Amino acid sequence: MNDPLSNFDWLTLYERYDSRCSGFNQNALKLSIFDRNDLSRPSTDRELYYKLVSIFSPLNLHTHAEPIEAYEALLYWKLYSQKAAISNLEKIWLPEHSTKRVKSQDTFKRLLSELPITIEHSGVEVIELIKWLGKFNLPGMASSTAIPVRTTFLHFIYPEVVPIFDRMVLRAIGVWGKNANQSYKVLSEYLPFSWGLAEKYRNQIALTRNESPIRAIDMALWVGRGIDQ
Length: 229
Prior knowledge:
Number of helices: 12
Helix content: 40-55%
Structural class: mainly alpha
Number of strands: 0
Strand content: under 5%
Order of helices and strands: HHHHHHHHHHHH
């Protein structure tokens, strides 16, 4: 794994990130949580990210009557740029008032109640938690290959610890293998690498202000894909 960020212009991070998020739709059905809780709908990808970080924070996590709506919004944030993924998600998702939705709501509440309050910067601990999520069989995380979505979910719970395991991020650091973002072996190497980058660029990352160091690294790698820093 290679570090492509030595000459990265951190002052342009937000501008470059936003320019790659043109597919975001603030009127998406899966953002209905913001209609039901006296919250304004986010107008951009980053605004949705900040709202989700707040929703999934320890102070707010259990205050929503229907937390499954927060999970829907999270899935939209992760998948909206992938047309095939969104299409597949629509086929398996949860119609309002359906038995499947009620069951998934209960399952999701149980998942949230069983999550540890904090976790360490430990590859073993993070990977065990990612695998543990599979037992709940929730849409978007049920498949054993759904590591990108599972890490996204855990990132919102533990934004200082868990990076988002994204295909474009892996390409940025020189990992181009097919289905690399579905490999626990690759993830076990990426976790300490990501933590190391967050520490290495901590002073530069401070310019972004609104993100954890781990998230700022995710964003910088994602916008560059390793080729246009």
